[in-house]
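Supplementary notes (optional reading)

For those who missed the lab, this is the record we used. Protein: Myeloid leukemia factor. Length: 149 residues.
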Amino acid sequence: MHTMRQMNSMMMNSMFRDPFEMMGQTALMPHPGRGSHNDMPVSLFDPHFGRFGFNNMGADGNCHSFMSQSVMTMSSGPDGRPQVYQEVMSTRTAPGGIKETKKTVSDSRSGMRKMAIGHHIGERAHILERERNMRGEEEERQEFINLDE
């Protein structure tokens, strides 16, 4: 129990503030004992992160990285059924200018589902995109960047 209190104390007194704080009413209110720069969410471009080498990650030729973003919204439709919109994007990079990108979108309101995958080596890329609509019709597109088909 003592260890948990120590951990809580350490986390609350450092850059790891209450993660749910920005979601409620208190996010818009001033916080006593904090400077204005601490009211913003933590950013990788924050000077505190410079010491970890994140700022030079893209310039380093020996770096592997993974980035992912996702969003999901849900609302009730006119008939009371849930309507869901979901989008997920990710990027993986490896030494030698190698990169893989993925993006998926799903919208229950329009019935649209879309997926794109891109493989990149330096300035060259092949991107494949597939889309399916509410009626089940599928469409596929390919994009070649600096490549001969």
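If you only remember one thing from this example: The chain has a mean pLDDT of 76.
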